[in-house]
Specification:
Layout lengths: L15 H24 L2 H12 L8 E4 L5 H8 L5 E5 L2 H10 L6 E5 L12 E7 L8 H11 E11 L6 H23 L2 H13 L3 H10 L3 E7 L6 E6 L10
Parallel strand pairs: 1-2, 1-4, 2-3, 4-5
Antiparallel strand pairs: 5-7, 6-7
Helix pairs in contact: 1-4, 1-6, 6-7
This protein binds S-adenosylmethionine (SAM).
């Protein structure tokens, strides 16, 4: 495993993707604990809202994109989903996730890049992507790939920290990102550089409306796009139309 340069991952740097992956590989052992402390459990509520938006999709094969330590794979398992693929480019995050699964859980872990998915055919009835896409350099490519592997009528639920529009959310975001995240995350993981990067990635990400525009340009229909409470995270629920152009109705 190589380590990032002294500055950590830098936007526009051609090595950024490898640096981001190495960073997640490094913080994997402490990620679950840091996440629980930093979110004070609120992320559980956000994930619950995300699961609710999936509807009946969970009755078929589901993709957990940027699955990390598999919180949503676990939620999908608990919801009775018959087949789950946890996909992430950090092997270490997935290894930690595997240790959290109950015996017999139907979750397959696959290491790979969200911008290039390994399935040729529409394979999934639905997908989730929680707090991962802002790290992916080309969101249009990742969304196109997601669209390609979903069956018609399939839903994709994205939970993410988009650039906030409301003033109160901007202030909260700023204080959290500049002070709380690097301090608390750095303290728990022993890697303040990594949590400094995560804070920067939140500050630098696009607004939700821009993300929704890209998703619609690649073919998705927007079902839900809204802020969650507290208004720092957002939920976007997309659907691949049942009848795509050229397909028989
Ligand atoms: C902040 S963690 C979130 C993990 C998990 N979904 C959760 O909600 O806790 C972001 C995850 O996205 C993964 N990731 C970032 N860029 C990726 C890419 N280009 N392809 C695949 N996974 C990626 C990271 O390895 C990391 O596990």
């Amino acid at each position: 495993m190589s380590s990032p340069g002294a500055q950590g991952p830098v936007a526009g740097d051609p090595n950024r993707e490898n640096d981001v992956r190495d960073m997640f590989d490094r913080i994997a052992p402490t990620y679950v604990k840091a996440n629980a402390m930093l979110s004070m459990g609120v992320d559980k509520l956000w994930r619950k809202r995300g699961m609710e938006a999936l509807g009946d999709c969970v009755k078929g094969p589901m993709l957990d994109l940027c699955a990390g330590t598999m919180d949503l794979s676990l939620a999908l398992h608990d919801a009775g989903c018959p087949e789950i693929v946890a996909y992430d480019f950090s092997a270490n995050m997935l290894e930690v996730g595997k240790t959290r699964l109950p015996a017999g859980a139907n979750v397959t872990a696959i290491v790979g890049d969200a911008q290039s998915l390994p399935w040729q055919e529409p394979r999934f009835t639905g997908a989730v992507a929680a707090f991962g896409l802002r790290n992916v350099p080309d969101n249009r490519k990742a969304l196109s790939e997601l669209y390609r592997v979903l069956q018609p009528g399939g839903r994709a639920v994205i939970l993410e920290f988009f650039q906030p529009i409301r003033v109160d959310a901007r202030v909260f975001h700023s204080v959290f990102n500049k002070v709380v995240l690097p301090t608390v995350g750095g303290w728990i993981s022993g890697d303040s550089q990594a949590y400094g990067y995560l804070a920067d990635s939140m500050q630098a990400y696009m607004p939700r409306t821009e993300f929704q525009d890209i998703a619609q340009e690649v073919g998705f229909t927007l079902r839900i796009g809204r802020e969650l409470l507290p208004p720092v995270a957002s939920l976007v629920c997309l659907e691949k139309p049942k009848h795509t152009e050229g397909a028989a109705p």
